[in-house]
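Re: that chain you flagged

S.,

Sorry for the slow reply, it's been a week of failed gels. I finally had a moment to sit down with the sequence you sent. For the record, here it is as I used it:
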Amino acid sequence: DLLLAFPSATHHLSEALIKERLSGRSKSPLLVFDFSNDIRNLSKINKISDLYVYTPDDIQKVVRHNISERKGAATTVSKLIEQEIDAFYRWHGSSERYSFAGIIGASPQMQRVFEMISRIAQTDITVLIDGESGTGKELVAKAIHTLSNRAERPFFVINCGAIPDNLLESELFGHTKGAFTGAANAKEGMFEAAHKSTLFLDEIGELPPQLQVKLLRALQDGEIKRVGSNETVRVDVRVLAATNKDLAKMVETGDFRSDLFYRLNVIQMTLPPLRQRADDVTLLARHFMDKFSKKLRKDVIGFALETVEMLRKYSWPGNVRELENAVERAVALAVGSRVLPHDLPPHVLNSAQPQNGHIAEDDHLTLKEVERRHILETMEATDWNQEIASKRLGIGRTTLWRKLKEYNMIDSDEDI
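Prediction finished late last night. Pasting the structure tokens below so you have them in one place:
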């Protein structure tokens, strides 16, 4: 407990009064606010309790100190809030905002892919991932594994099209000692290594017919046999497969077993080519630019407007993999802080450039297109920092935000 005393000219502190108030609370300290400057009897009171005396000057000092502290705190809080706002805007304009388990994509097509990954990751269901080369099939498989209940175990990958047929069976199912020439020791295959984990079979369409039967048994029964052995080994493996071929047509032509196809095709995920999600091109390019700027120790922070236009116009037949390689080359060759058109690979430059040598026909641009280009160029030049960009453009941050939404440079559903 704490005892407060406010003596005045007509009401003095007395030893009897203090003893009465401290009855049963002998250890309580006494705070005296002595506005009368009358400190009589305080020496006696000090023997009864811990005594603290505050004069009017002391009170004013405390108030002034408190006001100063509050102002300092308010200033600190304001700075922290401003830093948080700036951090939010930097995040909002970065590729990290659209990152899902290591995959970058803001387009509706990729958002549907992300949703599907989330829904199936926790199951042990077999998944067939199809799509053109370079669309990120292995990344999707890795994301499924990462979000699954098998994530604590390593993720195993084997490319069925990169290993000779005579060695592929051993790689998948293992072999015993002396099973074939050169088999000096027994070896476990991918299925045994991936027990209780996930095995990704890339280019499954390249699997030879004789191995399709063994794979089907492994999927259906959870059993394998090593090459050269009759002993059955039980395995618990989740299989994810990928192909850039039309397996349904291969079934029709007899090049792929129908029973294996249906066993693999429990859930089918089709990844869209990059040309069908143009909005992701700039996002991915910025992601790769940041990646290679750090890796190559360059100070590249953005793309020139003409470079962005070229990246968006090119069809990217090699998809994300081709874009990544192109950006790596461009960052390596960039001299200043921004990637210029001539830093791009020649085939990208030539494909995106009209015959008259101009990036675009500028003589008949609408006012909105001129504004859109100017805003985009400013955003790229400021590394998508909306506070700096709004100052350069001479408009408020709210106005810039509205313009970015109007020109689909940010998610139209986002609010400021």
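What I noticed first: DSSP finds 17 helices and 14 strands in the chain.

Talk soon,
D.
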